[in-house]
Amino acid sequence: MACHSPEEEKTILIVGGGAAAALCAETLRQEGFKGCVILATKEVNLPYDRTKLSKALESTGESLALRKPDFYSVYDIDVRTEMEAKSVDTGMNTVTFTNEQSINYDQLLVATGGTPRKLDIPGSDLKNICLLRTPEDGKTMAEVGKGKDVVIIGSSFIGMEVATYFQGKATSVSIVGRGSVPYGASLGEEVGKALQKLMESKGIKFYMNAITAEFKGEDGQVTSVVLQDGQSLPAGLCVLGIGVVPATGFLEDSGLVLNNKKAVTVDKFMRTNKPNVFAAGDIADFPLCCIGEERVNIGHWQMASQHGRIAALNMLGQEVEVESIPYFWTSLFGKSVRYAGYCAGFEEVVIKGNLDELKFVAYYIKDGKVTAVASMSSDPIVSQFAELLASGKDLAKSEIESDEPDWPKQLSEK
Q1: DSSP code of 20?
Q2: Average pLDDT over residues 149-171
């Protein structure tokens, strides 16, 4: 690991405080960069593992930190907290922050992550309607929700994990979702039903195919959530888990190319249309190797970490392509779902195993090929599929149709 040398005048500025930002800074020093490394984050905390927030709301920034403060000081990584970017001037190589400070750079990584979506409906300004983005948000939720009726809007990963946390701590836990089952878009109808049954067995109530119409309250605090069909759910705490949008508003006049969803367009080296500016993590629109370089925007912790590492290597002129396979996991009441690949637009799901026993493998099929695999209690099948994709091989639907598919044997073939 290198440290800063006064003889090296080059400055690399990293804007963001998540996995991509942290791994970029760390990789620069690992690869021997001796210039100035500045990591500017709008958070009050050092970079931390955000994926654990929804699983343990009472966590602190310190307990979730990826590195202790000494790490950054020993390796001369200048972490500046409470620095929210306001604009980027790619002509002058300058980032201006909301506190009116400006930092000049030779190379820039933008890794500002996502901004949680809000609901613009009557009563949305009431207290105790919360978004989860920081440890401080989680602590507030944990304190407010204890012994209260908790309503969670959104039935995907954040919503389901927060519901799991509150079971046994809240008076009641309800989930409101637009789809017919939780995780429908990401894991499919059958897997979603099985996970809903698991949650219901723990006393969690579901209101699916539902739209939230209004929040009602007393004395400025939320007391109920009203659905479009007229149902009213008591609520002392309401958690919004309805997705995120790229936090790229400050880039509008930067000259960087954004896609129609406001993600930053990068190449396979994580480089933007400005040669000395890179983007990584949840804000990056990048070519995914395992689906023929199709452009995607993926909000996975593992992928963000790889983005940060690849960006750092290419800042140093190593010309390394991003080739990581998407991989994530979630945990509900001690049961883990593991997932690898990319299944957007899947046409069919082939299930092997027993959904009722939560011991299964789900294969997601598109154009006759397996594009993703999810599993519960079936390790190491998901990791094997990720390894298969990483080797450049495909898995055809025909190869998984037998009762005991032998496709993992391909991993040992030369």
Answers
A1: H
A2: 97
The answer to whether 281 and 306 have CB atoms below 8 angstroms apart is no
DSSP string across 331-360: EETTEEEEEEE--TT--EEEEEEETTTTEE
Instruction: Give strand pairing partners of 282.
Output: none
Select from 53, 54, 50, 55 the least CA-distant residue to 22: 50
- Chain mean position to CA 150: 23
- How far apart CA 49 and CA 41 sit, in angstroms, is 14
Nearest to 171 by CA among 205, 131, 218: 205
Instruction: Measure the N-to-C terminal CA separation of the chain; round to a whole number of Å.
Output: 36
| Contact between residue 370 and residue 408 where contact means Cβ atoms under 8 Å apart | no
Instruction: Give pLDDT tens digits for 17-29.
Output: 999 999 999 999 9
Residue 280: CB partners within 8 Å, gap ≥ 6? 20, 21, 24, 109, 110, 111, 266, 270, 304, 307, 308, 310, 311
Residue that has been written with the tokens 């429908």 in this structure: 184
CA gap 114, 323 in Å, rounded: 22
Q: Which tokens hold the place of 280?
A: 């990584």
Q: In whole angstroms, what is the distance from residue 203 CA to residue 55 CA? A: 18
Q: pLDDT tens-digit profile of 352-399? A: 999 999 999 999 999 999 999 999 999 999 999 999 999 999 999 999
Place of tokens 């689906």: 291
| H or E segment and range at residue 152 | strand 149-153
Q: How far is Cα 266 from Cα 264, in angstroms, rounded to an integer?
A: 6
- The predicted pLDDT at position 406 comes to 81
Would you tell me how many other CB atoms lie within 10 Å of the CB of residue 54? 24
How many residues appear in the chain?
Answer: 414
pTM for this entry: 0.95
**3-state DSSP assignment of residue 14:** strand
Rounded-to-integer distance, Cα 323 and Cα 76, Å: 29
3-state secondary structure of 107: strand
| Backbone torsions φ then ψ of 276, nearest 5 degrees | -105, 15
Looking at 211-337, list the stretches that DSSP marks H as alpha helix, in order from N- to C-terminal side: 301-315
Question: What is the percentage of the chain residues whose pLDDT exceeds 90?
Answer: 95
List the beta bridge partners of residue 107. Answer: 12
Q: What is the dihedral sign for C-alpha 360, 366, 368, 371?
A: negative
Mean model confidence pLDDT for the chain:
96
Return the H-helix or E-strand segment holding 239. strand 237-240
